[in-house]
Amino acid sequence: MGNVQYTLNKVVASNILRRGKKARILMLGIDGAGKTSLLFKMSVPDYVVGSAISTLGFNVEKVKVTRNVRFTLWDVGGQEKLRPFWKNYFENTDGILFVLDSTNEARLLEVKNTLENILRSPYLKDVPVVILANKQDFADALDISVLVDRLELASIKDRRWLIQGTSAFTGAGVWEALKQMKRLMKESSRPWRRG
Ligand SMILES: Nc1nc2c(ncn2[C@@H]2O[C@H](COP(=O)(O)OP(=O)(O)OP(=O)(O)O)[C@@H](O)[C@H]2O)c(=O)[nH]1
Ligand SMILES: [Mg+2]
């Protein structure tokens, strides 16, 4: 009997390993930040950023981060009138990719308020956040250190977070962002959603 149970446990364990881990990642940020462009840069080989079509609903894509880890990425439209719907996507989220346009200094306060609102949600308690300082291919993009300061990121003390420069145009930092997210999730005490 003991042996049967032992064998059974081993089979179950190996099945879980083979299936790997799946995580639900939510991409948020105000309109024009580059969420959809980054989503496709992450999931579509040879993707080239195109004309601006603001997202009215959502896009969802799967990406393989490592042999065992897959992310389901949800990109939700960021126009102000759509933001009240974001909360419908919060439940079961394992990680937040918060995207901002590093060239748009005029909207930084809006970006700051938007991020703070998201992080207040009880559904997103303890959920790690990677802030993507996007459009770093532009010469006038704000430096990471300036963004840390202006967005008062040091005041985020209730979860793991980091900021990563990206460009959906060149692809710079895009892969790193996914790896960093995986690392933050691993470090967080929160259990992963079973995929
Ligand atoms: N040069 C450059 N352009 C970018 C980058 N990321 C996005 N863009 C452009 O910025 C515009 C807005 O990008 P989107 O990906 O549509 O932005 P979004 O965050 O999905 O916007 P909503 O769907 O309205 O919430 C598009 O014209 C993109 O081509 C980038 O890293 N570099
Ligand atoms: Mg979009």
UniProtKB/TrEMBL annotation:
Family designation: Belongs to the small GTPase superfamily. Arf family.
An MF annotation (GO) of this entry: GTPase activity
GO biological process, one term: establishment of cell polarity
InterPro entries in the record: P-loop_NTPase (IPR027417), Small_GTP-bd (IPR005225), Small_GTPase_ARF (IPR024156), Small_GTPase_ARF/SAR (IPR006689)
Keyword set includes GTP-binding: yes
UniProt-recorded name of the protein: Uncharacterized protein LOC106077943
Alphabetized SMART domains for the sequence: ARF, RAB, SAR
Binding site for Mg(2+): 36, 55
Transmembrane segments: none
Keyword tags: GTP-binding, Magnesium, Metal-binding, Nucleotide-binding
Positions that bind GTP: 29-36, 78, 134-137
